[in-house]
Amino acid sequence: MCLGIPGEVIELLADQPDLARVDVSGVKRVINIGLLADDPPHPGEWVLIHVGFALSKIDEAEAATALQFLEGIGQAYADELAALQESRIE
What we know:
alpha+beta; five-stranded antiparallel sheet
């Protein structure tokens, strides 16, 4: 199962404009935001992430709903968080 998981943008990397640091349930990772070049996210905004790429911007309420759902499905969410922890975009 492949999931998109919500993450909050906490920092844009000034030296690499296609990258941002996000917080996903306490896991902080650098992701690629290049797919959102037409409407890039800013710190404090939420994005839907899959395999290290931000696929879309979402609002905080949608992020909270998605996180609640993901926590409810258990192992698939844990697997996605583990994959995020292992990924590195630098």
